[in-house]
Amino acid sequence: MDDHYCVLDEGVRTVSSKDTTTTPDNTPGKLPPDEPGDSSAALSALLRVLGAVERAGNRLPHPFWLFAILSAFLALISWGLATADVSAVDPAGGKTVAVRSLISVDGVRSMINDAITNYATFPPLGTILVVMLGVAVADRSGLLAAMLRAGVAKVPARWMTFALAFTAMVAHIASDAAYVALVPLGGLAFRAVGRSPLLGIVVAFVGVSAGYDASPLITPMDAVLSGLTTAAAHTVDPGYVVTPLSNYFFSLASSVVLAAVITFVTEKVLVKRVAALPPEPEEADAEATGKATGDVELALAPEERRGLRHATVALVIYLVLIVVAMIPTGSPLRGEGGSIVESPVLSGIAVVLGLLFALLGAVYGRAAGTVRGGRDIPDFMAQGMRDMAPILVLFFAISQFLAYFKWTGVGQVLAIRGADLLKDLGVTGPVAFLGIVVVCTVINLAMTSGSAMWALVAPVFVPMLMLLHIPPEATQAVYRIADSCTNAITPMSAYFVMALGFLQRYRRSAGIGTLASLTLPLSVAMLVAWTLLFYVWWALGIPLGPGAPVR
User: Fold this and answer.
1) Which of the four, 15, 290, 334, 346, has the lowest number of CB atoms within 10 Å?
2) Whole-number Å distance between alpha carbons of 470 and 306
3) How far apart are CA 232 and CA 454, in angstroms?
């Protein structure tokens, strides 16, 4: 899951795992207690583990300071290794790579002189900014919220679980704002078809959180991950480029598979779990009244439906124009030799997506009445850039750390030595993938920022596996699995607490154990199924995305 920032009705705020939470007894900073029905030995053990993770994670500094501290440690480590003349032979060119010390004349000069360049040329920076300019227009105009509501409105009861789960996969385009928009909507959607709103909240929450890195659409997270992967790959190959489309085929298939897994586990397990919960008077009253005002929120207003129709027409026209423009072999939208894979459309997908989101948001807004003039568009973009402030601050610290890692040669030496060790042990790609899944899944319990964790581990995993002839795109695809599935069970996630708050609207006695008992089966099933999907993908040799082989 990426860094926590979301758009609320009252504006934009930054959410951290240390946000104060108000419980039903109005005691700030305390999570509500578990209900008696959740006191089984297995669940109690799980909650003790999660509590320990929460306490340990709360001691971690903000990711900005974490990378600042890591940079200081790197300086000390590079000095020690350089003093010991540690080096490694690059198998690609036979060149000896020696560790250089940051605590030296050249090191200090590099840190000062290259600081601005390190930040300005940081691969994810420009990509995510361009994409978010367009996403901001789509978000502020109301297009994204209307899309999410349209995705579950008027869906038959028997298809509601899958529809909501798949809508959650689509909602990843809205980044963390998907939690705020879709989780309460899930409860309303399920109640509207006569099912328990508790199930709707859990399905929406797990779909957004545990499936965070899977989507049928290109999302801002794709831009962030691909940029960080590119930077890590440069340790071995300075010319290597990983695009936001590098995992698209796998991500698309994953979104369908995960929605199916959520549906199966919900219908076979969670329905019985919710049915076994003792009834509450408040819950019964809420069901009897139907909370009609809430149901109205699920339906689209006439102007919203008109806006979606116009946006759909604009989408078709946009895509047709691009396809038609790419038909001639000499088209400027094609790459050298008429290549489509290496075309500007794919290599510059951030620009294409940014323009698309801005166009659809503007067309929707004009039809729905949320965009009244041309001035609204740049205003929406400016508001979107304010939302990006926490990411931009974090990117500065990350960009410096990665630049130091590359300059010292520590990353390259570590990757070469690690690859040699794996070869000596006879470790193959599938075994290495499983190791990455296990390691990153555990880390994700405490560090829920997907970009921060990938920035931390990518400089080691990506080049190390590249030396084992495993493409960076494959390593990134494995990371997506580990970065997502435990989001729904970790107390370090601010949205775990938020989901619990929505759950308590329908069941006042719900506690951490209630939510954990509902999300844990889904989280484990998704982790197993998603990992198996990747191994099947790997075995069949299916490309992960356009021009992105899996092996």
Assistant:
1) 290
2) 48
3) 10
Decide: 487 and 493 in contact? Cβ < 8 Å: yes
Which residues are 28's β-sheet partners?
22
3-class SS of residue 81: helix
Separation of alpha carbons 211 and 481, rounded Å: 8
Q: What is the DSSP letter of 328?
A: S
Which of 58 and 292 is assigned the larger pLDDT? 58
Residues counted in the chain: 551
Residue written as token pair 């369908």: 256
SS (H, E, C) 400-459: HHHHHHHHHCHHHHHHHHHHHHHHHHCCCHHHHHHHHHHHHHHHHCCCCCHHHHHHHHHH
DSSP string for residues in 207-246: HHHTTTT--SS--HHHHHHHHHHHHHHTTT-TT----TTT
Distance CA 123, CA 242 (A): 10
Q: With pLDDT > 90 as the criterion, what percentage of the chain qualifies?
A: 25
Question: With bands split at pLDDT 50, 70 and 90, how would you rate the model's confidence at 32?
Answer: very low
DSSP β-bridge partners for residue 13: 6
